[in-house]
Automatic annotation (TrEMBL):
Species name: Amycolatopsis halotolerans
Name recorded for this polypeptide: Xanthine dehydrogenase family protein molybdopterin-binding subunit
InterPro entries: Ald_Oxase/Xan_DH_a/b (IPR000674), Ald_Oxase/Xan_DH_a/b_sf (IPR036856), Ald_Oxase/xanthine_DH-like (IPR016208), AldOxase/xan_DH_MoCoBD1 (IPR008274), AldOxase/xan_DH_MoCoBD2 (IPR046867), AldOxase/xan_DH_Mopterin-bd_sf (IPR037165)
Pfam families the record matches: Ald_Xan_dh_C, MoCoBD_1, MoCoBD_2
Domain spans labelled Aldehyde oxidase/xanthine dehydrogenase a/b hammerhead: 32-146
Superkingdom assignment: Bacteria
Keywords: Molybdenum, Oxidoreductase
Amino acid sequence: MASKPEEPRFDGRGGKWIGASVRRREDPRLVTGRGRFVDDIHLHGMLHAGFVRATVAHGKITELDLSATREVDGVVAAYSAEDLQLGDMVALLDRPPEEFTPTTMPILARGKVRFVGEPIALVIAKDPYAVEDGIEAAQVSYEVLDAVVSEETALAEDAPLVHEDAPSNVLLDVTSFDTPGVDEAFADGCVIELVTRSGRQNALPLETRGAVASWDDRDEQLLVQTCSQVPHQVRTVLARSLRIPERSVRVVVPDMGGGFGQKCVVGREEIAVAAAAKLLRRPVKWIEDRSEALASGFLAREQRYRTRAAFTPAGQLTALESDIVCDMGAYSCYPFTVGIEPLMAAAEMPSVYRVPAYRVRARAITSNKAPTAPYRGVSRPQYVMVMERIMDLAARRLGLDPVEIRRRNVITEFPYTGINKVTYDPGSYLESLELGEKILRDEGWYERREQNPYLGIGFSCFSERTGYGSEAFAKRKMTVVPGFDVSEIRMDLTGSVVVTSGTINHGQSHETTFAQIVAERLGVDLAKVKLRQGDTERISYGWGTFASRSVTIGGSAVATAATRLGEQLCVIAAHLLDTRAENVGLDGDGGVIQLDDPHRRLSFEEIADVAYLRSHLLPKEAEPTLTATAAFDVPGDGTFSNATHAVVVEADPGTGQVKILRYACVEDCGVVINPKVVDGQARGGIAQGIAGALFEEVTYAENGEPSAASFIDYLVPTAAEIPDITVDHLETPCAFTESGAKGAGEGGTIGAPAAVLNAVNDLLWRTGVQLEQTPIHPEAVLAALAAADREKAGTGA
């Protein structure tokens, strides 16, 4: 029996599109194979590219001989760094040398390699098979150097140097906060100490990185079609590296199969491929294979927190102190730098809790590993794990319920300016916590836990800063400051509109959600709205998609542009109806009505007919066009979504395997544009968070060889390991965005590791062992359970 369609929800303005779970407009194209991804692009005369990559983690290049490569049948060219002479990438922070050391990332390695998989040379051939033969024919010799593969080796006094100008292997060292009262609180309070670690991860988008570059002699322009979250930044780096004007570079992003932050930085390979296409005057394609993606793609997450927290006997948090070390790999990513993870953690670690006194030191170290890029959540899964472990440990020490201690410390009055000088806009922190607890209690999970010693319950409460504007990014002292977004909307003679956005859709349903925003503002049917993204020639400027900024910033620019177009339509309609401008309004059905006589109406088609074909009838103040442009930037510290995750897990006493029995998410991302889309974002994010909590990790041998060469080594959960996930929505509208929406892209990933870890530690509490590292290895769970069972048997209990 077919299910009843969901009734649309409204945003309080009487509209019909905001809050409606309309079907994703992208799906018919994508599920029927009509999508167009980078690897689907085939141009006449196209060549293929591949890279000779470093086979050692740290070493001086003593020989690079490409002569045999150039002799391979089918090989057209082979280039070293000296052949291409490209400008380097240098990501900068406006900080003093004692705080920040920049790194120079050459497009192809020169003289030295710093991680396994670093590109050394570029091979161009007629087909991918000849490319592989050419790569194998390259002769590369090294003077192998000791590798830096851990915090301990990086910070040792006699450590080998990844970069000679970073003598301590520290690229960022900042004491962000050291407020009064920290030492006094630790002297008087109940002190909780812990060290947490998170494993290195790969973002693992379904579509690997790739690019098709071609040179147009007629336009004297380089066209680069690539899967990037930040096409305008790719254009800038390409132009600077190739030393050509930006007008000579056009970057186009077709359909994209995921990014998760890995593609919001500029990669070296795309630049090298573009340079080859310009030199050869022929199209060149490069598609990253999965082995390359696993071993040498941008990674993330490897962090260590050494934290202390002080509490009163009643469970009030009085002070927080943390030392944060983030292993950022061999280079700073562009444009965010190595500061992306440690600065995020230091600034936002207090999370949803009142923290009266705060001290934090944040460091980024360099190592002989692939560089780090932002990955969904960016440090928040890690510092939320710290805060949520602190809450559970303090509750145990003080004899309180884990939910109760959170209830006593969570922020409840808004706006709230924290000790970290961040102002939090209104949210439902307490409400989400209590609803999450209620769900588990009503379903009887607490009773089941009493009957099953291998069952555990865990919670995590957190906020997700979304829509970082220019002011928020400027606080990090970035020399390239993201923030605003721009939109243009244009109506044609049929009353249909094309709207542009500087954001990039790579699975977030922008074609649907943005169309809903426009349809709501203009009062047109959804089918009459078309979204254009990902073309630096058509979109004046944009910062792309990351940090849950699409609806908050991009959507607000779209909404503002639509409003301005509506105002134009009303001005023209008032003139044609021979009435005052204030006496007309959009009717919500594709037209403008006269307010004091609603029977007098002009459709958008009639207005457009005058604007374009009979412009002599326009009022003097109106131009013969129906186009509007708007820019938008979130003021201040941005806006904060929030959520509580409530999890029930069970451990297998025979294997130590952890199974998630129940996963409940209560989230608040402000006004929900499309509930089905938000639910999908939450569930997908939670799946990635579970992956980090239980499965995924890139490890390294002492010589810097990465373990993750294939999916045999890099464990990725399947549908069988991901539980059913329920999502409940609370709505606290945002005052800063045009639709009242907050971001929803990263929350699932942020909350999952902490909730799962707390649930596992809940069932392990009787063993006397607590795990403070992700992923949670079955061997560790099994060892704790076995030790407890042995102790129980020995005492005869």
